[in-house]
Amino acid sequence: MSTAGRKFLTSINWPVVNSVLSKHTEITKSLGAFRKGYEEAERQLTQLKETDRPIDFEHYRRVLKNTDIVDKLEKIAKAQKITKVDLAEQLKTISAFEAKAVASAELYVKETEANLADLSETVKNIEQARPVTQLTVDDVVKAKPEVVQRTEEMVKQGKFTVDGYDEKFPSLALL
């Protein structure tokens, strides 16, 4: 059974299930039998995992005609040794990577929260701003004082048009 299935079966509150289904005796009996069967199978599986079962090569030599294959397999089986791998270094690398990822994610969250705060401030300013049609020259000069200087310089030079204005906003006089 899969790990998810085992977790599911162990998480079932059997007394509650039995009390809810108390009127349905057949279902309760079937579930009880299923539970007992599952627990027995789980116990047997645990026992089998814990036992070391050697291969009986003599049995295969008696049954098979080609004993050379059995001899080769026996040599291979005896040569096989379970080696334990030290995973400490890999786990350390994974932990370091995880720490970097968490730190990066926290930094990203802080930056995103700061950006959201700036954006909400901008939205608030836009909502509170007056429409362009209600702006006065004094409001523009107050916001951008360099406009007055530039306008004065253009008047001194006898320039009464803004460069690029006609390209951006074509004249409608021909219509």
Give an overview in words.
With about 180 residues, this protein is mostly helical. Helix content is about 70%, strand content about 0%. It has 9 helices and no strands. The longest helix has about 40 residues, at about 90-130. It is elongated.
Radius of gyration, taken over Cα atoms and rounded to an integer in Å: 41 Å
What is the percentage of strand-forming residues? under 5%
Approximate shape: elongated
Low-confidence stretches: none
How far do the termini sit from each other?
Answer: 82 Å
Query: Helix/strand/pairing class, anyone?
Result: mainly alpha
- Whole-number average pLDDT? 82
Put simply, the count of helices is 9
Oligomer: single chain
- SS elements, strand count: 0
Q: How much helix is in the residues? A: over 70%
Q: What profile does the largest beta sheet have? A: none
Secondary-structure element order, as H and E? HHHHHHHHH
